Amino acid sequence: MTGIAGELAHEQAVVDTMYIRLDTLRGTTANRLRDVRLAGSTGTHQNRSERDAFATLYEDRAAQLDAVEDRLVFGRLDLSDGATRYVGRIGLTDAEHRSMLTDWRAPAAEPFYRATALHPADVRRRRHLVTKGRSVTGLEDEVLDLDTEIDADALSGEGALLAAMAQGRTGRMTDIVATIQAEQDRIIRSDLSGALVVQGGPGTGKTAVALHRAAYLLYAHRRLLERSGVLIVGPSSAFLRYIDQVLPSLGETGVVSTTIGDLIPGIRATAVDEGQVARLKGLLLWRKVIRRAVRARERVPEQEVTVRVEGHDFVIRPRDVSDAIAHARRTHKPHNLARGTFVRDMLDRLTDQYRDFADAPLSGEDRSSVFEDLRSDRDVRVALNIAWLPISPEKLVRDLFAKPHRLAEAAPELTARERRLLHRAPDAAWTESDVPILDEAYELLGEDDTVALAEARNRAAEQAREVEYARTVLSSTGAGDGLVDAEMLASRFAASGPSLTTAERAAGDRAWTYGHVVVDEAQELSPMAWRALVRRVPTRSMTIVGDVAQTSSAAGARSWDRMLTPLLHDGWRLAELTVSYRTPSTVADTAQRVARAARLPVSDLRAARDVEGSLVAVRAAPDPDLPQDTLMDTLPETGRVVEEALSLVKELVGPDAGRVAVVAPSGSVAGLAEAVAEALPTAVGAAEAARLVAQRPEDAQVTVLAPRQTKGLEFDGVVLVEPAAIVEGYGGTSDLYVAMTRPTQRLVVVHTRDLPEGF
Questions:
Q1: Is the predicted pLDDT of residue 653 greater than 80, yes or no?
Q2: How far apart are the first and last CA of the chain?
Q3: Is residue 487 pLDDT above 50, yes or no?
């Protein structure tokens, strides 16, 4: 076999050898651990200690070998001296102690993270191995020294493209390769401090640059970032799966990847707001709205409230409540945490009333008894809860959207029409736009103190059960020799539990602060979303990549300056990527003309390559089956769209690689997907039809998507359906610009209406 297929087979053989060695080491470790355990607990105290130490050693080694089953090997370096070095999750040597696999943390693996085209560090080619289980499913090559001879047919991904560009005979090609290397290298190695905004048009490699920068920073600043972690925020779960394949080694150093919709542990946003609703929810106004909504749960009664406890009348006076609220607020704690101060203050005031009843000083014991009687009384609890109500962030935000009087009270700046737009049922699904508002509520409310007390009681009960179990073990086995008691043994059980990685701890902690944050498709984020992210990185160390010309969200950025300066002030800087080396020049130039005609803020973009016949426009008949007098009645006939898709499939999709997307107005995606799936068995086989309806449609060789679903993705070919209808959707020309720039080989436009200006 030759070419890519041969390379895949070669890498599979190497990976197989690594796993055989891993299995051998697992067997050896398991045998040694078994032998140590069979030796029992006899002998001197020193012998028992040595056996325990060896048992711990082999247990730890076995756990380490088991933990690296997934992605054992993820990288390869081809060096200028002809040597090849594989990089993986641990180091492996063969039976003769010759190195087989280099641990990613070892100095010898450093070039895998730090080498760039301008600073290759004796690396000719860097290869990322994409694996699933023990199978090699793909390769991504980066050629760092284009002056050396590398078989272009044996390259995969961007490496093949750059090699082909470097071999071009025109000076323009050479200049462009040098430009790509220079501008990308400058961004990757930019200083850790502050926020770096990477503005770049479609196909300029923004995502790849951001991920390489993350890998570089993780290595160059390992001691800092492995403690605090790195947060990567992407536009969709499909995008996160994509980057998870491109740089699997990132997962080793405490990287958490998420979308805005999944930013808060335990909250999952399954819906999306459109248009004006998204814009309204993205306003920084919600800082004030949530604060007012929280303050509204801290209320002074209009008149005195009398409660009877143990035969005595206690009076809850408005003045006392007002003073106690002021006292609690001065602690500057979140609402639910400050509530404890308020309650203690009020109970002290009520206890003082009892002292007045008795007309005598209270002893410490008597005062504590009265205090506890008041705290336990239901009527007292109800009265104090009315004055200072503990409430969850979810309840607070749901009430704002479901109860008009709550929103009117907290958001007087909104018009009656805007408040009606925001109204929804209390059980409505969370949207992505809700999550930053919820995050603000979490910040101002804090944890419900009643929940915290319940959790503390549960932990205490669990610890008591563990101690009792340890006591039973010691009693029944006679272990411990009187040197270990039940409490010590229980603590050993707890300490031997699973040790969480930085990423696992960070992912489960909403208040975790990271050392660095990477944001892709950053132009889509609202001001409130940015506020939520900035909260998670106190150092303001960020890599922000995007293109303001591709903004489709009504709440997103049209200008980096207007979006970021209010939050980051002068703590951000701008770098630009100017060369598109994936999108054919005919497609890129046309997309830019369409964007400029619509006055989108596109930056100058130079396409590095062209493909003959890369842009084809096909005028089709309207679909007779669609209802008349609607926006969708002029969509092209479904049969023609499917025909063009199948034509692209036959031309561009090979047995090992290649993908085609049908990109259509969102309202027609479901129908087109069904039609394409039905037609696929006769075109590319029944197996591919099954893949179309799989859980991850972006992995299928042929898929049907709305423009916004294609963000961050690319395809060999794209069938673009009715551009005029896409322009009339929520995302407007920005969505069309995104859709037009997804293909690397060919764009086929199927339309019945006149094409937008710029075509």
A1: no
A2: 44
A3: yes
CA triple 298-300-303, angle to 5 deg: 155
For residue 139, give the nearest of 181, 185, 76, 85 by alpha carbon: 76
Would you say residue 316 has pLDDT above 80?
A: yes
pLDDT digits (tens, 9 = 90+) for 496-515: 445 566 777 888 889 999 99
* Cα-based angle 320, 322, 327 (whole degrees, multiple of 5): 95
pLDDT at res. 435: 97
Say if CB 431 and CB 269 are below 8 A apart: yes
| Structure tokens given for 608 | 């590095």
pLDDT at 505: 84
Please name the helix (run of DSSP H) or strand (run of DSSP E) that holds residue 124, with its range, or none: strand 123-132
- Give pLDDT, residue 561: 95
Surface-to-core class of residue 576, CB atoms within 10 Å of its CB (0-12 exposed, 13-18 middle, 19+ buried): middle
Both tokens of 367, joined, read: 């005062």
List Cβ<8 Å contacts ≥24 apart for 674-681: 675/638, 675/639, 675/641, 675/642, 676/642, 676/645, 676/702, 676/704, 679/642, 679/645, 679/646, 680/646
Closest CA to 616 of 666, 652, 656: 652
Name the residue among 257, 200, 268 with its Cα closest to residue 517: 257
Backbone angles phi, psi at 277, to 5 degrees: -65, -45
Q: Say which amino acid occupies 122.
A: D
Up-side HSE of residue 449: CA atoms within 13 Å toward CB?
16
pLDDT value at residue 489: 55
Q: How far apart are CA 209 and CA 142, in angstroms?
A: 12
Using DSSP, state whether 327 is helix, strand or coil: helix
| Residue scoring higher pLDDT (418 or 731) | 418
Q: Supply the pLDDT for residue 675.
A: 81
Q: Which residues pair with 143 in a beta bridge?
A: 125
Q: Which residue has the tokens 């990288």?
A: 75
Tens-place pLDDT, residues 588-602: 999 999 999 999 998
pLDDT the model gives residue 43: 56
pLDDT at 42 over 60: no
* Total length of the chain: 759
Asked whether 522 and 545 are in contact (CB, 8 A), the reply is: yes
What is the pLDDT confidence band of residue 586, given thresholds at 50, 70 and 90? very high
As a whole number of angstroms, the distance between CA 163 and CA 539 comes to: 39
Q: Is the pLDDT of residue 690 over 50?
A: no
Q: By the 8 A CB rule, do 546 and 523 touch? A: yes
Instruction: Output Rg (C-alpha) for the chain, integer angstroms.
Output: 32
Cα torsion for 568, 572, 578, 581, to the nearest 10°?
-80
Q: From CA 713, how far away is CA 158, in angstroms rounded?
A: 14
Task: Give the residue among 660, 705, 708 at the shortest CA–CA distance from 680.
Answer: 660
SS3 86: strand
